[in-house]
């Protein structure tokens, strides 16, 4: 209830601000105007939203799978970790906006370059969260496994990995929160569809209310993705908290 | 009940136990009689746990003496597994499907013995601390090793639950070679066929104390309480 009241309050303040200052619509449209555009251009907006949502979800899945696989490889093999970890860190040192044009050049204006971009910003929080989780297994569990003559593979898959799932879930939540960044940057740099593309196009034509409507939908998409991931994470980790005080 | 054939004794000869810079014991020679329970009694920090971890091969650079089962102070149940799967953990981790299948009836029977026969499918978080420690005891017994090491296994429990679990453990561990570490003199006197006091840095092991009578001994037995008084006095002056 509280977020709804806050949102309504902010929208009202915005409406009043526009009305009092008399800012032209192409600079700052009032929320009522954005709402009208949202209804009038609903078909166009939904079409673009579906496109962007697909980019975000595919990027999230790709990023989660790649990130999880890499983290498990790092945890299982010190050799791989020594060679590949610096590369992973370098990949994050390059600002994603700087490689965006390259990805568009290589993968085209279509969906692939956006999915790649989203996956690129997503996989790092996933790798680092899951790898951290895999390293911080309760030493008591590892002692127990050792006394039981456990095979190292079984320890990784049956103890360390499930024990790291809460960490993975929190990495996935961060990933879901940053996924829209990757997709939208990709669309700004070069695209033929999507909400980010619609924003740049409508801003260039002075259709600011349409850009705001697209922004509003982007915000909704981001929230939906975050909450879906959060829900899935809680389903994945039904136990309350890892043991160990 | 599991039938155990002639559990071996455990001998330590001239051992040096250290981890990092800390030397816990030097030239340690110690014999744990087969098929009996030896309680190692000492104040916190004397190195009881280190000795146990050394025996279990859990200290870096050590090998354990023989296959054994290990029970820690915490129950160490995996929160994502059912109680039954937790009890079968060793078989799961060794990856032997045949042995796992063969051990399942035993696991069910053991859980019945510790009073958890109707909680097989529950997750550990649904159980009380005492129940979880009973599940951990069932897991330890399910390993079916003739040597069992226990590190203050009942230290976290309230007094009544502790007494109940001591009785249960004494009954179920009968016939195995058990080394139990504890800082509770009464626990040592109730459960140990033999009690040994650890003191000093690096620690030395006092002569074997053999309290009379079968275990678990009655906690209200005046003879036992007198012995407890003497042990406490002994622990005090070894500070």
Q: What's the helix and strand layout?
A:
The complex is a heterodimer of chains A (245) and B (239).
Chain A: H1 2-21, H2 31-40, H3 42-76, H4 78-93, H5 96-107, H6 111-135, H7 139-147, H8 152-189, H9 195-204, H10 208-236
Helix pairs in contact in A: 2-10, 3-4, 3-6, 3-8, 3-9, 3-10, 5-6, 5-8, 6-8, 8-9, 8-10, 9-10
Chain B: E1 10-19, E2 22-32, E3 37-41, H1 48-55, E4 69-71, H2 83-87, H3 89-94, H4 97-113, H5 129-142, E5 147-151, H6 159-172, E6 177-182, H7 185-191, E7 194-199, E8 204-205, H8 222-237
Parallel strand pairs in B: 3-6, 3-7, 4-5, 5-6
Antiparallel strand pairs in B: 1-2, 7-8
Helix pairs in contact in B: 4-5, 5-6, 7-8
Could you characterize what this model shows?
Chain A is mostly helical and 245 residues long. Chain A has one domain (33-236): Orthogonal Bundle (MetI-like fold), CATH 1.10.3720.10. Chain A is built from ten helices and no strands. Chain B folds into two domains: 1-68 and 146-239, Rossmann fold, CATH 3.40.50.300; 77-144, no CATH class. In chain B, strand 1 and strand 2 form a beta hairpin. The interface between A and B is medium-sized, with 27 and 28 residues.
Provide a quick synopsis of the model.
Chain A is mostly helical and 245 residues long.
The geometry of chain B reads as globular
Distance between the first and last residues' Cα of chain A = 35 Å
Average pLDDT of chain B, to the nearest integer? Answer: 90
- Give the full name of the CATH homologous superfamily of the largest domain in chain B: P-loop containing nucleotide triphosphate hydrolases
Low-confidence stretches of chain A: none
CATH class of the largest domain in chain B: Alpha Beta
Q: Describe the biggest sheet of chain A?
A: none
Question: Based on DSSP secondary structure assignment, what is the total number of beta strands of chain B?
Answer: 8
The CATH topology of chain A: MetI-like fold
Assign an overall shape of chain A.
elongated
* Spatial separation of the terminal alpha carbons of chain B: 42 Å
Strand order of the largest sheet of chain B: 4-5-6-3-7-8
CATH superfamily of chain A: MetI-like
Helix/strand/pairing category of chain B: alpha/beta
Largest sheet features of chain B: 6 strands, mixed
- Which architecture name of chain A does CATH use? Orthogonal Bundle
CATH fold name of the largest domain in chain B: Rossmann fold
């Amino acid at each position: 209830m509280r977020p709804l009241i806050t949102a309504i309050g902010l929208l009202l303040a915005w409406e009043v601000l526009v009305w009092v200052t008399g800012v032209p619509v192409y600079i700052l449209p009032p929320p009522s105007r954005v709402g009208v555009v949202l209804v009038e251009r609903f078909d166009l907006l939904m079409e673009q939203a579906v496109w962007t949502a697909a980019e975000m979800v595919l990027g999230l899945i790709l990023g989660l799978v790649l990130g999880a696989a890499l983290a498990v490889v790092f945890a299982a093999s010190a050799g791989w970790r020594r060679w590949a970890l610096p590369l992973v860190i370098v990949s994050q040192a390059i600002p994603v906006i700087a490689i965006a044009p390259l990805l568009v050049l290589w993968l085209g204006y279509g969906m692939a370059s956006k999915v790649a971009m989203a996956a690129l910003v997503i996989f790092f929080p996933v790798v680092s969260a899951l790898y951290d989780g895999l390293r911080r297994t309760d030493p008591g569990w590892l002692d127990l496994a050792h006394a039981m003559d456990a095979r190292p593979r079984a320890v990784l898959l049956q103890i360390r990995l499930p024990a790291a799932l809460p960490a993975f879930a929190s990495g996935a939540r961060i990933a879901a929160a940053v996924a829209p960044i990757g997709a939208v940057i990709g669309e700004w740099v070069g695209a033929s569809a999507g909400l980010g593309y619609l924003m740049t196009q409508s801003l260039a034509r002075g259709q600011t209310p349409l850009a705001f409507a697209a922004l509003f939908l982007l915000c909704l998409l981001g929230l939906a993705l975050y909450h879906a991931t959060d829900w899935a994470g809680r389903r994945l980790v039904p136990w309350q908290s890892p043991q160990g005080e | 009940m599991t039938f155990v054939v002639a559990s071996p004794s455990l001998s330590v000869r001239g051992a040096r136990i250290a981890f990092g810079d800390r030397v816990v014991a030097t030239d340690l020679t110690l014999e744990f009689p087969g098929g009996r329970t030896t309680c190692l009694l000492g104040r916190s920090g004397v190195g009881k746990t280190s000795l146990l971890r050394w025996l279990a091969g859990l200290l870096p650079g050590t090998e354990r003496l023989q296959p054994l089962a290990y029970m820690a102070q915490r129950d160490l149940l995996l929160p994502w597994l059912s109680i039954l799967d937790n009890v079968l953990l060793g078989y799961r981790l060794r990856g032997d499907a045949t042995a796992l299948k063969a051990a399942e009836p035993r696991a069910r029977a053991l859980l019945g013995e510790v009073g958890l026969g109707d909680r097989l499918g529950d997750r550990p978080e649904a159980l009380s601390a005492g129940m979880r420690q009973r599940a951990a005891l069932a897991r330890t017994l399910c390993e079916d090793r003739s040597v069992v090491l226990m590190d203050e296994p009942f230290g976290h429990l309230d007094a009544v639950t502790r007494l109940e679990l001591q009785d249960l453990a004494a009954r179920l561990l009968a016939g195995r070679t058990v080394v139990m570490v504890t800082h509770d003199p009464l626990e040592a006197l109730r459960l140990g066929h033999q009690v040994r006091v650890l003191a000093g840095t690096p620690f030395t092991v006092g002569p074997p104390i053999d309290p009379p009578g079968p275990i678990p001994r009655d906690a209200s037995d005046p003879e036992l309480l007198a012995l407890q008084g003497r042990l406490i006095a002994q622990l005090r002056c070894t500070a």
